[in-house]
Amino acid sequence: MQVALAIAGSDPTGGAGLQADVQVFRALGVHGTGVLTALTVQDSGRVQQVLPVFPTVVLDQLRVLLADIPPQAVKLGMLATDDVARNVEWGLATVPPELPLVIDPVLAASDGTPLLEPRAIPSLERLIGRATLVTPNLPEAQQLTDCDVGTQEGVEAAGCALVSGLGARAALVTGGHTEGPPDDLLVVREGGSQVLTWLAGQRREVGPVHGTGCTLSSAVTAYLARGDDLEVAIERGRRFVAKALDGAAQVGKLARFLSYG
Length: 261
Ligand code: PLP
Fold this sequence. Notes:
Layout (H helix, E strand, L loop, with lengths): L2 E6 L8 H11 L3 E6 L1 E5 L4 E6 L2 H14 L4 E4 L5 H11 L8 E3 L17 H8 L4 E2 L3 H8 L6 H14 L4 E4 L10 E7 L2 E7 L9 E2 L1 H14 L4 H17 L9 E2 L4
Helix pairs in contact: 1-7, 2-3, 3-4, 5-6, 7-8
Bound molecules: pyridoxal-5'-phosphate.
């Protein structure tokens, strides 16, 4: 069985975070391992507390796990603090550079609660520099690149900056968080240039949902662990999220959760 590793924060509701990642991995037939970066206190509507895991314990989790169960793909989610992000960087120093790495650059929850301290941005950017794919939503893309994502040109500039400026192999800027069409922009580095593709999405009126970003990035990670090429994994990951949104269920009192089938 293939193995995918998520390095992420805890969401006790199971709608996002490490709990959702591991559920997605399993739904896609991949064994999920997990390194916890932070505890949170939250319900389906609001994050109420964040407690980062002691940074050296994050590193120890990674070292011990990687020595025993090498993954075929890795996903990073919430990193909480600069110290945690640096220890994740050190922990990943031993993995082969060709191992697929998907980064969901989690900055804040939908309710606005910060999930990464601002001084950790340079560490996150260094990690993005070794990513196979980075999957920001529009607010994250704007914060990481200073591009105005209110226009199509601005989104394209942001996607290109993540690839040419920060060094990711590819960026998928997701459009679902705004009022406009929920199209995603894919930018892939090919040789010395970048190929831009708009991927059309269909808005689904399901009300407040929790965990779409986590679900997309972990689904793409699972497909990469199974050996799919990047663009196939992205297409299948987007389809997985669309289906999970169609089946979204009122599990929590305050938000719907995606259904993994
Ligand atoms: N909790 C954790 C641990 C997360 O990683 C995230 C998102 O990445 C959230 C909560 C917030 O999820 P949402 O913004 O979908 O509410």
